[in-house]
Write a structure and sequence with these properties.
The protein has 310 residues and is mainly α. It folds into 2 domains: 65 residues, no CATH class; 230 residues, Orthogonal Bundle (MetI-like fold), CATH 1.10.3720.10. 73% of the residues lie in helices and 1% in strands. Pfam families: BPD_transp_1 (PF00528).
């Protein structure tokens, strides 16, 4: 009897596979991408437990166990990296994360569709500008020599401020760049969620005398809540990923005390200083913490009665 049931299951799966064969064929490029560029490179994580030598390769390098992790955790760099990374992530969570939500709510209140589409197009544009251009624009505006902002300050107060060199201005500048570049593009997901709200709810609320503020508070925001929870879970999971390219372009010898984060540290130690095993250990730690945070945030959301990402 069990053999017969197993045979029926195999036949039903084969029939289902043949019926949807084109969907499986369309799945192949995406599957190959993840296999080649996501899973295959995990073999290189073994460097974190070796004294890796490019001449000996991964298979021939000496195994040293958790030596590099011990060196990393007991060194002075670890707490500096943790503080800088968490500060940037915390500020991003407080100031950048709500920005697309607020902007999408404002756009949703625009009734003139032509004007709304124009505004959406304009705020999407910065997303397609590379971080190199963003860093160049920032330098052009804020440099001490001939920056437009410092020229205005000098004309008003007779003083200039080294925005690009003083550590106190580094974090606000990074968060400001993120808000300017990504807020508009981030509204796409929330606007898509808003388009799925039943308009009869608004009609009923309007009949009951509710104004725009009450409708947004009692209809729009509760409808956005599942999407916000999912995006928050993903954001918490990337709390140690502060964006290598942006930070690397904005860091310099004057602000390195607050600008050095895990992403730039792994690059500088691994590729610049050729400490492959040590940087692999630091990168593996960051990835493990991110995975744990995603699982914990998803578990917390489910315990609170919300839908998680899985």
């Amino acid at each position: 009897m069990p053999n017969e049931i197993e045979a029926v299951r195999k036949r039903s799966f084969l029939a289902y596979f043949l019926q949807h064969r084109w969907l499986y064929i369309m799945l192949i490029p995406g599957a190959l991408y993840f296999i080649i560029f996501r899973y295959a490179p995990m073999f290189g994580l073994s460097m974190a437990f070796q004294q890796y030598s490019p001449f000996r390769g991964i298979l021939g390098s000496k195994f040293v166990g958790l030596l590099h992790f011990k060196t990393f955790f007991t060194g002075t760099d670890f707490w500096m990296l943790m503080k800088n990374t968490l500060w940037l992530s915390f500020l991003s969570l407080i100031f950048y994360f709500p920005a697309p939500i607020i902007l999408s709510l404002l756009l949703n209140e625009i009734r003139q569709q032509a004007f709304k589409r124009t505004i959406q197009t304009l705020i999407y544009v910065p997303h397609f500008i590379s971080w190199v251009i963003v860093a160049s624009i920032t330098y052009t505006l804020f440099n001490v020599t001939d920056g437009a902002v410092n020229q205005a300050l000098q004309a008003l107060s007779g003083k200039v401020v080294n925005f690009l060199g003083l550590p106190d201005y580094f974090r606000p500048m990074i968060i400001g760049q993120q808000i300017w570049k990504e807020t508009g593009y981030g509204t796409i997901i929330y606007l898509a969620a808003l388009s799925g709200i039943d308009m009869e709810l608004y009609e009923a609320a309007r009949v009951d005398g509710a104004g725009r503020w009450r409708m947004m508070w009692y209809i729009t925001l509760p409808s956005l809540k599942p999407t916000i929870i999912i995006m928050l879970i993903l954001r918490v999971g990337s709390v140690l990923n502060t964006g290598y390219e942006q930070i690397f372009l904005m860091r310099n010898a004057l602000n390195v005390s607050v600008a050095e984060v895990f992403d730039t540290y792994v690059y500088m130690r691994g590729l610049v200083n050729s400490q492959y095993s040590y940087s692999a250990a630091a990168g593996l730690f960051k990835s493990l913490v991110s995975m744990i945070l995603v699982l914990f945030a998803n578990w917390t959301a489910k315990k609170a009665g919300e839908n998680g990402i899985y």
